[in-house]
Specification:
71 residues; alpha+beta; two-stranded parallel sheet; 32% helix; 8% strand; globular
Length: 71
């Protein structure tokens, strides 16, 4: 859920399993993780964001399964 939509879509978040929060660099996702944990959601920030994910060999795919790009 994009940061700007989180408030309106909070009802979509599961409360019974850990939420992994990620953005491009890890900065915005840290803010969201803090807000979620303050609201008693079990959330964890993915350190380094998508850049670190890709650098460690993780694949970046679009919703349709085609290769994606971090911009």
């Amino acid at each position: 859920i994009p940061l700007g939509e989180l408030g309106a879509r909070q009802h979509e978040l599961p409360e019974d399993r850990q939420l992994l929060v990620i953005c491009r660099s890890g900065a915005r996702s840290r803010m969201v993780t803090d807000a979620l944990t303050d609201a008693n959601y079990p959330a964890a920030n993915v350190a380094g964001g998508m850049g670190a994910w890709q650098a460690s060999g993780g694949s970046v795919l679009r919703d349709d399964g085609t290769p994606g790009a971090i911009v």
